[in-house]
Amino acid sequence: MKEAEKPASGLTAALRRGELTSVDCPSREVFKHVTSLWGVLCLIALRDGTLRFSELRRKATGVSERMLALTLQRLEEDGFVRRTAYPVIPPRVEYDLTPSGEQVAAHVAVLADWIEENTGDVMQQRQARG
In the 8-state DSSP scheme, what is residue 8? Predict the structure, then answer.
């Protein structure tokens, strides 16, 4: 096998591939932000368009202000959510999805839809296992 044909190995190659199984892979953090309960709910809610903080909080019932703010901050840092603050009194802040956010939200929505459609079966499995 030629050198160029050999599969890359080692930590550097794993990091380049985004290997979730590696404890040192930065993709784990992104994965965690996107797939957290509040991350999923924010991404799905923002698929419908721009929302203010209070509107997001109403859509993601049960989330505290602090947790929602932290979730939005992480999604913004990852480049999935855009925060726009308007210099008015009282302050007005809006959130919407970036192009990357739209892509990841579409994938998350597929998973969420599957879970919604199959929750009955999952609950039956839980009951059967006792």
Answer: P
